[in-house]
Amino acid sequence: MLKVAALAKLDPALFIREVRQEVARVTWPSRKETLITTGLVLGLSALAAVFFLLVDWLIQLGMSFLFGGV
Questions:
Q1: Cβ contact 69:61 at 8 Å
Q2: What is the distance between the alpha carbons of residues 40 and 33, in angstroms, rounded to a whole number?
């Protein structure tokens, strides 16, 4: 039979201390890194949107040609 582990007691003060310790260990990105990453995400999202716009347009053109556009 499996032994049931005792549940940890809820201690909000201990939780807050542990969270503060973990946050202190985090390596936060610089403002420059954040701006560069944000710019890349926006740029690549725009590039993907244009790509799918063109692919959709080509498929539409192909279907119109194939089925005698209405």
A1: no
A2: 11
For 18-56, the pLDDT digits (tens) are: 999 999 999 999 999 999 999 999 999 999 999 999 999
Residue burial 9-20, b: 16+ Cβ < 10 Å; e: rest = eeeeeeeeeeee
What span, in angstroms and rounded, lies between the C-alpha atoms of 26 and 49?
A: 34
CA 46 to chain centre: 16
Beta carbons of 29 and 37 less than 8 angstroms apart: yes
Tell me if the pTM is above 0.85.
Answer: no
How far apart are alpha carbons 22 and 29 in whole angstroms?
16
Tell me which amino acid residue 36 is.
I
